[in-house]
């Protein structure tokens, strides 16, 4: 008898895997390959930065679930808040001139935490829905401003903004656009601010200005009067932790201001402390008009997302917008909002955002500088509590001189396998290995994680030698 048990239960892993393979379609998964590899790992329990699978193996979760479990696993306070709210009022909608207590309190909290001038929030259940909301809100704004020809939203190649039709169109993932006729009309992409990819022969500062300049070129090509907004992640997450040079975002801001274009920060990953500020735009030095958020707002305990709306947009939508014909059954879901309130209380009480900035972010940087000495690692980059390592075939001391592996050899995936089998979860984006650990990680746990990563890099190197790839 299989049950959704607690961590104490003994699991029949083989049976669970078999049923999963038989009935469960996973996101972003090649199911034939998954079956061939014996099915999915079954996760059963978490505590702090650690996970346990159904075979009882303890694993460091270097990815915070999917960049979201900011306060770590096992927070009974969030479970209690959710339970209490479920008993009081599990659901009511926010459509017909009604609201609920957690939604009100959370909206007020978010207005307090957000950068100045952000006084309103629209709730969704995910980051994808938040970005779909952004598209509709931005276009509605320009309609109301009597500039309906301002339709085009500019995004970036290799950006990730979600998987719904509009969010996947905003995203710049070629593999996603190739399936299902994307992007939808009115969305264009410029290059990403990847110094490794396109900064050869320049300083990082020069490259930041140049990469931001691609926005101005695109605006001029389209005609400024056609452009509604620019959207970007402060640090691109799913694209491979692309950390822009410090000159990039201020220059993007200057260009958006110059042409009156709305600036949207997708903070689904960077928000709620990941970059050592409540919102990543604060670290990167820009003031967006809209902020999309999800993930860290509840630490993933219950799905919740939304769009924070600054005065510039809110004054138009709220004061003279009439009906905004948009919304979700679960907009302002009381249980999700209750989880968020408790999550934010924990982030504040334990000063986790400050801890990332002052303590664990710098410690992760030092630990990754150590990992950069490994023969397989071309370079290491960190920004507060996100970090990445490039696996290279020949290391030559500069990002532009290192020799990469062939894509077909899927070296990142080989490395990820060794990590997972040896108790640490890293994500592979091509041959770039990524971590974004829970914000509760301690300095000692960062050292523990780095030691395991080093050992797994050794295993990977031996494996690659055996395969004749190095
Ligand atoms: N934006 C960014 C920056 C993301 O990283 C993600 C998810 N990884 C999304 C949007 C989409 O969020 P969701 O999966 O909750 O729809």
UniProtKB/TrEMBL annotation:
Sorted UniProt keywords: Aminotransferase, Pyridoxal phosphate, Transferase
CDD domains noted in UniProt: OAT_like
SUPFAM superfamilies linked to this entry: PLP-dependent transferases
PROSITE patterns associated with the record: AA_TRANSFER_CLASS_3
Cofactor(s) required for function per UniProt: pyridoxal 5'-phosphate
Gene3D superfamilies cross-referenced by the UniProt entry: Aspartate Aminotransferase, domain 1, Type I PLP-dependent aspartate aminotransferase-like (Major domain)
One GO MF term attached to the UniProt entry: transaminase activity
Keyword Metal-binding in record: no
A UniProt-annotated Pfam family: Aminotran_3
InterPro entries documented for this protein: Aminotrans_3, Aminotrans_3_PPA_site, PyrdxlP-dep_Trfase, PyrdxlP-dep_Trfase_major, PyrdxlP-dep_Trfase_small
Similarity section: Belongs to the class-III pyridoxal-phosphate-dependent aminotransferase family.
PANTHER family per the UniProt record, alphabetical: ADENOSYLMETHIONINE-8-AMINO-7-OXONONANOATE AMINOTRANSFERASE (PTHR42684:SF3)
Database matches in NCBIfam families: PRK07480.1 (NF005682)
UniProt-recorded name of the protein: Aspartate aminotransferase family protein
Lineage: Bacteria, Pseudomonadati, Pseudomonadota, Betaproteobacteria, Burkholderiales
């Amino acid at each position: 008898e299989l049950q959704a048990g607690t961590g104490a239960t003994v699991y029949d892993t083989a049976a669970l895997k078999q049923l999963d393979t038989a009935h469960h379609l996973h996101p972003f998964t090649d199911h034939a390959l998954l079956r061939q590899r014996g099915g999915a790992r079954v996760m059963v329990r978490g505590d702090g930065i650690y996970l346990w699978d159904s075979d009882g193996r303890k694993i460091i979760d270097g990815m915070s679930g999917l960049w979201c479990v900011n306060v770590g696993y096992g927070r009974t306070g969030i479970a209690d808040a959710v339970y209490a709210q479920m008993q009081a009022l599990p659901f009511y909608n926010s459509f017909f001139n009604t609201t609920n207590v957690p939604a009100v309190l959370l909206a007020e909290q978010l207005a307090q935490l957000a950068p100045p001038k952000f006084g309103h929030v629209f709730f969704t259940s995910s980051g994808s829905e938040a970005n779909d909301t952004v598209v509709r809100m931005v276009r509605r704004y320009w309609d109301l401003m009597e500039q309906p020809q301002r339709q085009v939203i500019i995004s970036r190649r290799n950006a990730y903004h979600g998987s719904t039709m509009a969010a996947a169109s905003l995203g710049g993932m070629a593999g996603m656009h190739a399936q299902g006729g994307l992007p939808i009309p009115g969305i264009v992409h410029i290059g990403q601010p990847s110094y490794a990819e396109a900064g050869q022969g320049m300083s990082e500062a020069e490259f930041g200005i140049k990469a931001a300049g691609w926005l101005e070129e695109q605006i001029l090509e389209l005609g400024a009067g056609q452009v509604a907004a620019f959207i970007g992640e402060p640090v691109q997450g799913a694209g491979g932790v692309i950390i822009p040079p410090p000159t990039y975002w201020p220059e993007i801001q200057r260009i958006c201001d110059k042409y009156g274009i709305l600036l949207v920060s997708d903070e689904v990953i960077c928000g709620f402390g990941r970059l050592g500020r409540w919102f990543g735009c604060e670290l990167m030095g820009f003031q967006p008009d809209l902020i999309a958020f999800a993930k860290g707002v509840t630490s993933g305990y219950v799905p919740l997302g939304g769009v924070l709306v600054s005065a510039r947009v809110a004054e138009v939508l709220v004061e003279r917008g009439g009906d905004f014909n948009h919304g979700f059954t679960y907009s302002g879901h009381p249980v999700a909002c209750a989880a968020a309130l408790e999550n934010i209380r924990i982030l504040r009480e334990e000063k986790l955002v400050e801890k990332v900035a002052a303590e664990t972010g710098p410690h992760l940087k030092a630990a990754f500088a150590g990992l950069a000495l490994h023969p397989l690692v071309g370079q290491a980059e960190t920004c507060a509590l996100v970090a990445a390592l490039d696996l290279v075939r020949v290391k030559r001391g500069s990002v532009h001189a290192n020799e990469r592996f062939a894509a077909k050899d899927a070296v990142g995936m080989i490395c990820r396998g060794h990590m997972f089998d040896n108790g640490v979860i890293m994500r592979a984006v091509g041959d770039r290995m990524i971590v974004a650990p829970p914000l509760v990680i301690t300095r000692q746990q960062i050292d523990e994680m780095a030691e395991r990563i080093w050992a797994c890099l050794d295993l990977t190197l031996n494996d690659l030698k055996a395969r004749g790839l190095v």
